[in-house]
Structures
1.
Amino acid sequence: MLDRKDILPEPELPKGVELVSEGQGQARDWQVGPSAFLTHTGHRSEAEFKRARAASARIMQHAQMGFRDAGKSRRAYAEIYERCRQQGATVDRYGISLDWSMGYPAERRDTRFAGTGLVLNGPEDFAELARMAPVAAHFGDFVLGFPAAVENTRAALSAGSTSIGNLGQFFTFRLPGWDDDVATARATVTALALIAAQKTEVLVHSNLDDGFAALFTDTACSLGAVLIEKHIIEDLIGAPLSHCYGHHFTDPMKRLAFHLALGRVSDTPGTMVYGNTMAYRRDAAGNFASLASYLLTDIIGQMAAPTGHAINPVPVTENVRIPDIDEIVDAQCFASRLIEHAGGLLPAFSLEAATAIADILVREGRRFRDRVLAGLEGAGIDLNDPFEMLLAIRRIGSRRLEELYGPGRKDEARPRGRAPAVASPTLDEIEELAHSALAEITSETRGHIAGAGLSALIATMDVHEHSKLLVEQVFGELGVTIIDGGVSVDADDLAAMAAETGADVIALSTYNGVALEFAQALLGEVEKAEIHVPLLIGGRLNQIPRNSNSSLPVEVEDELVEAGAVVCRNIADAALALAKLAQEGSTAREPRRP
Ligand code: B12
């Protein structure tokens, strides 16, 4: 059972109604400004444009862009549109990949761990970008859901953006060194109210995969999350909410079913369907097959039940690093041609099976919403206060919500103690990866590790959690004791945990293009704590060099080795390192724990 005193223990918290009124007040000074897109299309908002396009059965295209260098980003904004146009493809909207350092208020912006994205300093920078081509600018990541939500939303509005934010990130993302989730929730509610108070229709965007969908084991919970968010954003704050999904929707049938289900529970036009980036595991040729597979599913979905979502052809280099301009153009032209090829294909598809799954998603998603709302009310959370609702849900987290209120029947053998109504493929995929990783480890290596009594502190320094789950599973099977080092953890906290727990090794995943800076900071903290603990590091081991003019990250594996870390390209590398440690341990030291 949940209890308010465990979730919101603070004696005084801001009142949602006051934050909403503050946001509404700001709408007097901050309104939707002009943009090349609105002028060119003659529509008042992207939502209006989307409705018109969907009514005429035109499938729209989304491109994700935003390089660290602002000049390159402006050039890309114009060039991608123009080069696609010359090849007969239309890019309708850009998702702008802002850097995670944009989440801090400008005066407290922490650039120590600047990632791979774009940093814009104030409204004029936003507007200058959106002026470069008649493409709808969607300022999404690191806008809503962060301490800088209000200032970023104002800037996006004044640049003529009418799809804003990524509310999904509010629920799961944490900025390095930032612990004040009350300030984050306060800024988010105020910014949402500012959006709601616009005279022009402005869509609040929420990417479910950035939120809880990446971690729910039941896809019905993801549909339930849509309904809960709609209650908070549409019913309580009054802004139209538009959902995006896709990264983790690997099974084509369930992907199509989710599209049909979403269309049934929402009549707000969708922003975009995200690419199935989890499927990108190979080289370009293999990834093109994944691209074709999910795009065709999304195209058929839009033909069968238009929702206004743009399709999103993700460049095939996505699993290596952030893609460059040529790669984005190629993917857009590929998608445009695929739409042409798919022209007469719809009658060849029977939607019966997908519709049957959609029925379950809608029914069980509603059940999840009802159970969560009843549970929150029972715990003493005010269901009519958007601030309390958002903060409470963030603090409870996806795991607990699913364990307590998931619609699936109880089954202690399953990861959340429930048999999912519609199983999400993500955890199954991680399990498969774990099995194949284990199969690669020789019995000799296993023998060394087993029985050595090793313990590993396993963590990630950003939101990417799948590798952590994978490493935990494999290490566990190898007989290593697992210590949870957390997600989005800071270097000093992790070193302190290593000292406190006496872990034999730290196993860290890092993906956000800050591998070297973070490893150096962590190793510095480990030294300060006067402990000797090896660091195994994996993920995307890259970083944008400080003097780079390409805005693309480069690999830093050699530098990491030089700094003293053990680079793990895969799990097998880690197994060898553990075996070595076990052997050294058996000769050089006594076991540290009973
Ligand atoms: C899933 C995903 C997400 C999900 C994460 C969901 C979750 N809760 O885990 C979501 C959608 C939330 C997300 C968000 C972001 N993402 Co992301 N994401 C990915 C994606 C698609 C897959 C990564 C993954 O989990 N793979 C599964 C694991 C199991 O496989 P793997 O990565 O190959 O790992 C293997 C090895 O590396 C090794 N390994 C990994 N770690 C470790 C650790 C140890 C100790 C060991 C031994 C081994 C090991 O084991 C694995 C098996 O061999 C990649 C692209 C891709 N296709 O790879 C981008 C990617 C990693 N993301 C990226 C970015 C930029 C982001 C965002 C900043 C985007 C944004 N603007 O919001 C945010 C992060 C914000 C934050 N606060 O941290 C970039 C990183 C760019 C770079 N460094 O060059 C990538 C490469 C996409 C891209 N091209 O832009 N992301």
2.
Amino acid sequence: MSKAIIVGAGIAGIATAIRMALKGHQVEVFEASAQAGGKLSEIRIGSFRFDAGPSLFTMPQYVDELFRLAGKNPKDYFQYEKLDTICNYFYEDGTLIHAFADPLKFSEEIADKTNDSADSILDFLNKSRDIYEITNQVFLQRSLHKLRSYLNIGTLKSLLRFPQIDAFRSMNQSNEARFKDSRTVRFFNRYATYNGSNPYKAPATLNVIPHFEQHFGAYFPIGGMYSIVSSLIGLAVDLGVKFQFNSYVDEIEIRNNKVIGLSCKGKSHSADLIVSNMDVWYTYTRLLKGIKVPERLKKQERSSSALIFYWGINTSFPELSLHNIFFSEDYQDEFRQIWEEKGISSDPTIYVHISSKSNPEDSPEGSENWFTMINVPSDTGQNWDELIKVSRKNIIEKLSKNLGKDISKLISCESVLDPRGIDSKTFSYQGSLYGSSSNSQFSAFLRHANFSSSIKGLYFAGGSVHPGGGIPLALLSAKIVDDLIK
Ligand SMILES: Cc1cc2nc3c(=O)[nH]c(=O)nc-3n(C[C@H](O)[C@H](O)[C@H](O)COP(=O)(O)OP(=O)(O)OC[C@H]3O[C@@H](n4cnc5c(N)ncnc54)[C@H](O)[C@@H]3O)c2cc1C
């Protein structure tokens, strides 16, 4: 039996461990933290529970697939509900758009609340589906760095349709050409943030993202997002995977251009293959001693990060649902500040996620757990303490104005996470949520491969080595690694 070691128990690390165990490897996972899940973790403050990172769950089929591969019924381990209303969008002029999951109902909602027609929305969703169909096999399911990925009929057909993926103008240019109303443009531009990009620079190909939500649907796991992790850990343990927590890996050991093991807390552990779920930048700069960081990796722009306030709120707001967005009035300026000034707008777009709306045990009766997040630049040494102080005040003012109540008086407990904390908690370079950004049409090809071309037995899984972003793509990176390993 060959031995596979996974560095990191993020969602991609766990999925890789399951796949390696199913392949017949003896699998051990070393995780630096005391808890599995990486960015997908949970925190408790007093009687409140919060999912610390991701909150929007799409493409649950990639979680289910892992149970099915193991011959189990996913429902015995993990359950989730489809959302009828994906998100509420609040605009400064008082407009409130409900993003209904049903495409017809959603298109009528847009026609009712903006100057755009229902048909323009349905046309857009069809275009989004077309981009998905063209890019899915090429960008999402296979390694972009293996010739064999391109040598099949499906991929060749997709390549012939490439001019249709709208890669040569920005997402905003495409959306402005399609929609009359700036509120609709803002609505669809926001999807660029789903992989930490800038809609005013990123190619319109990213208009594929709404398809994930509007076609496949948005879901919420019973028990909260963290149950994705706990259920998969349960499966991995059933399959014989061993987890070592509080175990930061210091070095991947290499001899004759082949991995031979790793060292953790001064002890060597031998392995036939190693999959690093650590951000690929840190894998090179911290674990691969004496190996140069590839030039391409050095040049890549990092994706954006997040500033999050976890607030216990001692009342409830019936007008809010599980996911809520409060748009900035000047969306373009917000992104200019993030990407050009490396700062934060005084009127940021605010995302409020309240898991207790679906999972009442997450907060005491009569209260709510607010995960309040804004997009911010990655950490390049800004004065975060000052930015947090100013942003907290701006966020409270904006939410209080929109909701007609002084939010500052309702906060009963608080914890804050900023890019420095995301970096130090999950070893994500500069606190970027998705590795490098997708702000250019070449970004997908410039991402590091899921394997090392110079070190035999070394593979990479996770958000930093997949051209997409988020949980589904991290899970797909594990599938790609699985396909690469014989
Ligand atoms: C605030 C926030 C909001 C988000 N919102 C969403 C959302 O709504 N929907 C969505 O789909 N996605 C969202 N994402 C993105 C999503 O969380 C990530 O894409 C995904 O969780 C990445 O998983 P991963 O396995 O690649 O890496 P990570 O979660 O970063 O896991 C890496 C793991 O490796 C461990 N590790 C690293 N180095 C070492 C080492 N040397 N030794 C041992 N262990 C090590 C780390 O401790 C960590 O546990 C969000 C992320 C954040 C932070």
